[in-house]
Specification:
The chain is of the alpha/beta class and 359 residues long. Helices cover 51% and strands 11% of the residues.
């Protein structure tokens, strides 16, 4: 069999160590010779942000971070960075903080040091997103890839067990969607598969004991691998749907991904048997889509889009919007009616069993 592919590995420095976030962040800033830092931090990581600020003396600081990066917040952050002649950005928090930093980097070329406190994975990708007039636009650009990632599993201790597993299922979606994304290749499939092997047991252990730091570290490692795979493979059907739902209806990011993923798998896996086998292997042999649905239920993540604020009368509009963005490479052709059916099941939280997965 002849194997042909074109793979790009994105280059960045990764500093990984529990309890070392402060020292590693300061060291990363020094290595970049940063003297005028813009600090972007979620409100719930004030202690670490204050400690970093005391060591790097930022020229400006943003603490009011909003999910899905609204365009007005992005404009204000960019203006602040330019006005203060910032030469580096430090982001501390989840994907929303990283996402805001990415838009500033996209517009200014300023390098990012990302300090993630969730399993969102944005820190490992060159993907940006911006929401304006209830529509989320995404793209990829080398300028938005953080130059350095500082991973510290103890930072995720601020997440409740429910928040942690939703965030982890978001990470798991990076690996799964990467199996059928437009630039899927053997290398990112291997990374995604290894990410799943770390994420599934890690999340199960976190759900059993939210204080299990080894489990959080394993989950963080898996989230990084899954994000690297996603960065290389691109956005597949799952992420295209979720970008629409997040931008148009402002649904909570991680919970939305946790709900939608099993239904996308139920639609795609019959036409993507290799992906199904990789997912099944990580789920102890359970069939892919039913296994993902059962895992979500086992972990106690939200069960339906209805539960997180999506209204039934929004389904038809969302299906139309999502259908416009479906990659041509998707293993199955997806008409508007298919997406509407998928979203209706996700809205209701319809159970997925092996016999119900379409052939």
């Amino acid at each position: 069999m002849t194997v042909v592919f074109d793979h790009t590995t994105l280059g960045q420095r990764v500093l990984f160590g529990a309890g070392q976030a402060l020292e590693n962040t300061v060291a990363a800033a020094a290595a970049l010779q940063a003297e005028r830092v813009l600090l972007i931090a979620d409100a719930f990581v004030t202690d670490l942000a204050d400690a970093v600020a005391a060591r790097v003396n930022p020229v400006a600081r943003i603490d009011d971070v909003i999910q899905h990066v609204p365009s007005d917040r992005a404009d204000a952050a960019t203006e602040l960075a330019e006005h203060q002649s910032a030469d580096a950005i430090i982001t501390i928090g989840g994907g929303s903080a990283t996402g805001l930093g990415k838009i500033v980097a996209l517009r200014t070329g300023i390098p990012i040091i990302a300090v993630p406190t969730t399993f969102a994975g944005s820190e490992a990708t060159n993907v940006w997103g911006l929401t304006e007039n209830q529509r989320k636009t995404t793209g990829s650009d080398p300028r938005v890839l953080p130059r350095v990632i500082v991973y510290d599993a103890s930072l995720s201790a601020g997440l409740s067990g429910r928040q942690a597993v939703a965030s982890g299922l978001n990470a798991l979606a990076h690996a799964v969607d990467g199996f059928w994304a437009p630039r899927a290749d053997p290398i990112n499939r291997a990374l995604g598969s290894e990410g799943l092997r770390a994420l599934v047991p890690g999340l199960r252990a976190v759900a059993r004991d939210g204080n299990d730091m080894d489990a959080r570290e394993q989950t963080l490692y898996g989230a990084y691998l899954a994000a690297v795979a996603f960065a290389s493979a691109g956005s597949g059907l799952h992420h295209k749907i979720c970008h629409v739902l997040g931008g148009a209806y402002n649904l909570p990011h991680a919970e939305m991904h946790a709900v939608v993923l099993p239904y996308v798998a139920a639609f795609n896996v019959p036409a993507a048997p290799d992906a199904g086998s990789r997912i099944s292997a990580a789920l102890d042999g359970e069939p892919a889509a039913p296994g993902l649905w059962a895992l979500r239920e086992e972990l106690g993540a939200p069960a339906s889009l209805r539960e997180i604020g999506f209204e039934e009368d929004q389904i038809s509009e969302a299906a139309l919007l999502a259908a416009e963005a479906i990659p041509a490479s998707n293993p199955r052709q997806a008409a508007v009616a298919d997406i509407e059916s998928l979203l209706r099941d996700a809205w209701a939280g319809t159970p997925i069993t092996e016999r119900e997965v379409p052939a």
